[in-house]
Fold this sequence. Notes:
The complex is a heterodimer. Chain A is built from 4 helices and 8 strands. Chain A is α+β, with helices and mostly antiparallel strands. Chain B has 2 domains: 3-165, 2-Layer Sandwich (Beta-Lactamase), CATH 3.30.450; 176-233, Arc Repressor Mutant, subunit A (Orthogonal Bundle), CATH 1.10.10. Helices cover 52% and strands 11% of the residues of chain B. Chain B has helices spanning 3-14, 18-30, 60-68, 76-80, 101-112, 144-165, 167-173, 179-189, 194-201, 205-219, 224-233; strands at residues 36-41, 53-56, 88-89, 118-124, 130-136. In chain B, α2 (18-30) packs antiparallel against α6 and α8 (179-189) crosses α10 (205-219). Chain A: Its EC number is 2.3.1.184. Chain A: GO terms for molecular function: N-acyl homoserine lactone synthase activity.
Amino acid sequence: MKLQIIRGLADRQSHDLLEENFRLRHRVFVDMEGWEALRRPDGRDVDDFDNADATHLLMTDTAGKLVGGSRITPLDRPNLLQTVFNGLVHGELPAHPSLGADWTRFYVRPDRREGRRRAPESAALFCAVMEYALSQGLSYITFVSSIYMLEHGTAVGWRITPLGPPVISEGKPTVAAWIEVSEAALGAVRRATGWVTPMLPDGPWPAEHLPDRGLPV
Amino acid sequence: MNADLMSTIEGIQNQTSSDAILDIMYRAIGGYGFERFIVSGLPDPGIDVRPFVLLSGWDDEWYERYTGKGYVHLDPVARHCFSTTLPFDWSDAPYDAENDAPARRVMQEARDFGMDEGFCVPVHMEGGMQGVVSLVGKTDHLDEKDRLELHMLALYAHGRLRYLNSPQERLDGRRGITRREAEILKWAATGKTAAEIADITGLTTRTINQHCENAQKRMGTNNRLHTVVEAIRHKLITL
């Protein structure tokens, strides 16, 4: 499995993969999870936050087929957590928004999560998100999800703090929370999942902080 | 969110031993009117539940009875975990009281042990594995907020315990067992009692028990049987 990082507006090579990502997200989040608000006639899940600020972490198999993904958006730019899901956030963010990012649209291709095993795609994505966050100098990652993420996250040794009380949203217990980013968290998720291979691509890739943001004052 | 709950959640995540989580959980669930609880994985039909138990706050007699007799496969509460993602009251676990005599017996015996009411949180893990956090006590006073808080608490405890019990953590994060401990566990695995192992090895019974307890501590297991099972599973001993 290979991690592809697509930032902002994709170049031609990444374009096809990103489009596949949008279609797969529609299948997972609208058709299967029932997020009707995201339904679009063209069968692509694209929202306001799939913009130039977004980073897509996409996992492909050896044949180059997309098997899972996640979207990371900065917290000091318009983001899902502080708009659509703001009602779930009661406390303060743990540090300045420029030190955090919002993790959204985590999914594993449906035909890869059958059977009784931990999908390696899911393990690899967990590792990739933490590795990416560390490489960007982030100190925390926020998310909104079903409450079960608290179990899955702590089971890989992550420290997770709720940003507000859980609520029932469309029949599902839902919570906003943040994950501490650290070397220890990366080591823990690697040990717990057995996925020890570094995921970030070798060689030149945009290692600078997310574009046009400057330092916090 | 209330400060007690936040500090409980932080406390659970700071612990590195199951025993410490046991203490925190007793205190936390006490605040909601519960006295006892269990945290466990749920095995497939016919499989012994004991290696799946992450933490037991049940009384010993009921624990031995429930696990030893395979009640987990008859218990309507445990069975219902496979068909719902949401927490439920034990009394809402459906079963055919008229025709399902084994289920009725488990429910009756649980009542005799003072475990007639409770709150159950099913835990669905990656890859379709199933777990449970089950709290013993009355539920009629719980409002939706309490139920959501207990749900969250249960998931934190289950996740943290699962992490502490994950093989990599155990082998990397803690020491393996000593050669002497391995030797003793091998005898234990063949069904020898502490006294018999003492005879064989020339050590005292007390020393044998101490070695077993040390191995148990290192491995984070709950009792001797669990220690032997885990030692075999992680190839710390070969038979």
